[in-house]
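Re: that chain you flagged

S.,

Sorry for the slow reply, it's been a week of failed gels. I finally had a moment to sit down with the sequence you sent. For the record, here it is as I used it:
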Amino acid sequence: MKQKNLILMVVAVGCGLVAAFLTSQMSAKPAPVDKIEVIVAARDLTVGSQLTHDDLKTAVKRKLVSRDAVPPTVVETEEELLEKRFTRTIRAEEMINKADVSKGSVVSIPPGMNMVSLPIGLSQAVAGFVGPGSRVDILGSVRGDTKLVALPILVNMLVLAVDANTAYPDKSAAYQNLSTVSFAVDRKQALLIKLAQARGCDMSLLLRNPEDKVNENDKNYDIDKVIKLLADNHLKTGVEDDSPPAPRKDDAKPETSPAPKSVDVVKVPYALTDIPAGTEITADLIADAAKFGTRELPKDVAEDAATDLTPFVGQVLKNGLGKGQWVTRGLVGKAELKPAPRTEFNPWKDGTPDAGPKPVPVVRKTHDVAVHTAAGTKYFRYEELAPGEWRMRGEVRPGAQSAKPAEKQID
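Prediction finished late last night. Pasting the C-alpha cells below so you have them in one place:
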C-alpha cells in the first residue's frame, strides 16, 4: 500500500514540474527581431529618371525592416542615389538595389539585350500612355493575297525610351506627341521587327497591365511561327538567327551552317495611306511624300511590282491601294469613258406626240405687192423660193403676219 502511494506521489510531482515549465514558456517574452533602417521608394520612380537634392526629400524615405529580408547590395544612404538614373521602374515601398541605378549612360540596356527603335505614332502608342519601363505587346496586321491577318509580332517587350526621353513627362502621365519607341530586344527579335516592316505590317502597341507578368497568350506565342507566317505568301525570305550557337556538352566544335545567300532587292513605291479606287495617277500624286514612299523588296517578290509610277501617269487605280500596299500592273488601268448626257424629253407645246426632234422652220424672204383697181387696193405677198424665183403666197391685209392662200398662184 505504501509503494502505491509513493508511485502516485512521484507522478504528481512530475506533472507539476511539466506544468510549471509550460507556464514559464508561455509567459516568457519573444526574442526581439533584429531590424535595420533601409531606403525605400516613397512613390513610383520611373526608369531613366534622375534624382536631385530636392527630389530626394519626396522620392525616397527610410523604413525599418528585418535584417534577414535585406539583400547585401541594398542602397544604404541617400548620397548613393544622387545624380544617378534608374535602370528599371521602382515601385513605392520597394527597396532600391545598387544595380537599379547607373551613372553615365542615359539608357541602361539589360544584359544580353540590344536596343532597337520602331516608328510609332501617338495613336499606335495607346494615346501616349506608353513610356519608359512599360511592358507592351507589338501587334501587327499584314495583307495577304486573299485575306488580312492580324497577329502579335512580339510580346512582353520592355520599353527603354520614347523618342529621346527616358522618363515620363513631368506634368503629365502621357506624351502629347511622339514618333519613335525604343525596345530592349535580342538579335532574333530585332530581325523580326525588320521583317515585319519590310512586309508592310501596320503595327501598334498593346500596353500590358503591370501586374500581368505572364499570361496564357505568352505561353502560346511562338516567334518561329510568326517568322514563318510573315515570310510566307510568296515571300521566299525570312529571319535567320545569326547568334552564336550554345557550346555543346562534349565541348566539340559547333557545326558551321552555310552562309545565307545574298538576296537581290529592288526599290518599289508603296502607299503610306489608303488611296481610294478611281484615283488618277498624276505627277503630283507620285511626288507627294504623304501618299507614296519607297521600300526594298526581294527581286523575285517584286516581279510584278511597279518600280516606277511615271509610265502610269494618266491612268487610274482601279481598286485603290491599302496602306502599306505596293503598286502592281494589274491594279492600274485606263479611266472608263463617261456616257454622253441623254437628251431630255420635251413634249411639243401643241400636244403633238414626240416623234423625234421638231423640224427647224425654214425662213424665207417675202415681199408684198400693192395692186390698185377700181374696187380698191389689194396686197399680195410673194415668197422667194430661190434667188430670182418668187411664188405668190396669197392676199394679205396691210400689217398681217400671214397670207391668205391664193386661189391662183403665179409661178
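What I noticed first: Residues 265-333 form a domain with the Type Iii Antifreeze Protein Isoform Hplc 12 fold (CATH 3.90.1210.10).

Talk soon,
D.
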